[in-house]
Structure formats: C-alpha cells, structure tokens
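Minutes, project check-in

Agenda point 3 was the complex the collaborators sent over. CS summarized: two entities, 414 residues total, and the question is how they sit relative to each other. Sequences were read into the notes so everyone works from the same version.
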Amino acid sequence: MLEFTVEDLSAEEIERLRAIYEPLAVSVRELVDATIRTEVDADTVAAVKADIDAATARLRSNQIDGAFGVKRTTSGQSMSWGNAVIGLRNPIAPPLDIHRDPDGRYWCDFDLGAAYEGPPGHVHGGVSALVLDHVLGEAASPDGKPRFTGSITVRYPRACPLGALHAEAQITRVDGVKTFVSGYISDAEGITVEADGVFITPRWLRD
Amino acid sequence: MLEFTVEDLSAEEIERLRAIYEPLAVSVRELVDATIRTEVDADTVAAVKADIDAATARLRSNQIDGAFGVKRTTSGQSMSWGNAVIGLRNPIAPPLDIHRDPDGRYWCDFDLGAAYEGPPGHVHGGVSALVLDHVLGEAASPDGKPRFTGSITVRYPRACPLGALHAEAQITRVDGVKTFVSGYISDAEGITVEADGVFITPRWLRD
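CS then shared the predicted structure for the full assembly.
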C-alpha cells in the first residue's frame, strides 16, 4: 500500500536539489511566523497577500501531483523532504534534525515558536505528541527500515513552554514484530512530556 | 502560569480583524503546499524566495512580541487565532472547525494535504495525534473552560490516507478533576486512528 519511490539520484544531485529548495522552505517558515504575529494595517496585508498569491502561482506552474512522498535512492538513502516533522522542504516541519548516539539513544535539540502554540505561550499538547511520535519512531527503526506506530501514550507532567527544547528516545524492548520505545521532551527545567510507544514492523519487512 | 489576555473587543471589532488577517493565512497555507510540491527551476525559486522575504519583512515591520496567545473578550468569547490546530491566523493549522452536537458529541470534517505527510501518501501518525489531542480536549471542555491533557493514548489500526477526513470525540466519564474522553479519525472506509485521553481541570478552575 505504501509506495516508497526508488530513484537513481547521486549524492551530488541530491545536494543540488537540497540547495535549491531548502532555502525556500526556510523563508516560508519565517513568513508563517510573521503571518501569525503581524499587526500591520489592512492595506499592507492585502498587498502582501497579493504578492504571496503571485509567488504561489509561480511555484505551482510546475509541480508534482499530490504529496512529496518518500524517495529512496539506489544507494539506500531516504529523502523524507515533505515529512511534517523532519521534511526540509516542508515549512510546517520545525524541522527536527535527529541524531543517533552509539548506545542507540536518538535525540534532537529544536526550537518551537508561535506556530506551535496551544495554551498561551506554551507548546500545543498535540504538537508535543507529534514530535514524540516521530522521535520514538526513528528510535524504533535503527536499521533504517520503517516501523509504524501501533500505539503511543503521551503524558504531560508539566506545561511545555515555547522556545528551546530537547527530545530523546530509546528502545526498551523488542518482542517479535513489536518494538517498545520510550522518550521525552525537556526544557531547561527538566522533563515536560513523556511518551511510550509500540512500533510495528510492517508485514513486507518481516523475515 | 498561563496568561489568558482579556481584551474589551466588540463582536464588530473581532469580525473586522478576522476579515483582515484570515485571508492572509489562507494564502500562506497554499504557499506552504506549493513550496513542498514545486518543481520550478533554481532561478524561479530564488526569485520567489526574494519576494517572500520582502513580504515577511513588511509583515514584521509591526508585530507583537512572542506568540499570539489566547485573548478572551469581556463578553466571554475566546480567540485562539494562533492555535496550531484551530488558529485561523496560523498557516500551520488545517484549521479545524469543530462542531458540537446537542448530545455532547464534538466533530469536524477536514482535509489534510501534502504538508501533513508521514508515510508516502498518508497522514503522519503524529499529526493524527495532534488532531485528536485537540478534538478530545474540546470535548473535555463543554463549559468553555479549558482542561489540559493529562495523558492521551493513540492507536493506529490502519494507515490514514491524506485527503478528506472526519474526527469526533465524546466524554465517557467525569471523576473529580479528571474528564475521560474518547474519539477517532475516520476516512470513507471507516476508523483509521483511535484515542483515549484524560483531561485535567486546572487548579485555578476548581471549585
């Protein structure tokens, strides 16, 4: 059911594409933030909106059908550039840059601004769930083969402020097709959100 | 800790502000989608990026400090316009328009496109968690007073395709400061994601 496109892209070609499209997403992330926070007057908003509509039309003059998908290169690299959490071409994604330690711990430092707000000045609880679902899912897939969330439980011991945050996750147990992972989000004061997930090896990846 | 700003805004003034700023967010949502899907060449991307940076600078020439927050009017209306899920000024928000039936069922129909992708062609599991956290949270607060997620468990019986979706939630039980809520997301074929949450009445709202 899930189509992971395989394309014969060289490392140089991937880098060339990244250099073209990543800066655009960076700029649109800034625009998203400004759109929420601006207090300019109606005429200025209308003029800016017209410019944005023109920009969108230029970008749409040549575009793919549907969503970006996940492209895999023949060398085994995975390009999740449209992904809602890590996609370098997706302005909605913070985007998370997840690191792996030799001991199997996955972690990232990231910053969440106005676009991720729920309670005043704080991260939307669902955004914390979004981040943790992704970080736990990466930790569940140390061989690079995807595992999918079977279930995840997220607990909120404390409201999570917007700003600089840290997330990490680690496998706690593997039982057949089920991989159990735990993780958390923390700020400078300590843990704000915790999660436990069960990730499933898809049928087509089972031995 | 949470500052809900109270402002003396009339219904007419709120409507005037909505008419100015909502269309801008609608346009930026389209731009987000186009940014992910475009295949235009490097020169066009660079020109578009310059236009977007100029638009952002104009919007930022007069902007609030920090995030939008949640403004409450003296008449008791709540303006969560920056919210990551329902914020009409937030281009990241789909945004969800949640309805309440007389029997206490909360529901919404919505559409998720390229910006919400995880597995190819499918909704990111964390985005489903984000949506459900919000819809369950609304259902937990039928008196309009906020309740905050204590914990939420999300189960994924089936991969959720991008496109037209439906979500709903309902209180199953109230026990002191804890409100228990269940809900789901479905597509035309049936349920794709289920959630159970415990929502907590904050200390400052308890009798």
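Noted in discussion: Chain A has a mean pLDDT of 94.
Follow-up: revisit at the next meeting once the mutant set is ready.
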